[in-house]
Specification:
7-stranded mixed sheet; 24% strand; alpha/beta
Amino acid sequence: MMGQLKRFILSILNYIRHKKSYSQDGEDVALLGFYEGVKHYKGFYVDIGAHHPVRFSNTHLFYKLGWRGINIDPTPGSMKAFRFWRLRDINLEIGIGAQNDTLKFFCFNDPALNTFDAQVAQQRNTGKPYKVIREVEIPIRPLIDVLIEHLPKGQVIDFISIDVEGLDLEVLQSNDWQKWSPKFVLVEDHEFQIEQLEKSKIYVFLKSQGYRISAVLKRTIIYQKIVN
């Protein structure tokens, strides 16, 4: 399995070099490779920790191809840009978590680093070059509740992208995987090691939900639903 993964990573990197990417590490182009040969397909995504409609976006490339979806980010004011650039999308300025609650949100001088995770915030708050510039209380909701309220009736989710800087597992656990089981899940995972997969709580959780690894990027793992 390790040899297959490494060969696949090399093929993905070669593919990315020849395509225009908006993601931080080529996640969008890597995922698009799975849709090669499927002409004019316009799917649906859910982007949690969307950050910006273009910068570091895992969904902007798909939006340009006619896709649409739901963008979610708790950063105050973040949805102003989404409402301008993503007219077809549903844009929500909220946090996602295990239960309805209010959490302290750490805002950095680079919004891509914003996080609910106090430990991650402390590690990054070095002042060189990144620092926390404010702390705000933000309401959070489970993903299941947000999808019940905002997902169009009968809509199939093609992929979910999760990048919430530290609480990605909690976001995954807040979904109803029996009701919404997208073909692909993109998730940032700092515990992930190819040689020791079981050390990753995210890997263990998604495996239990019927997913396997399909691609490994620098920070993000792409999981694919196993179809029996």
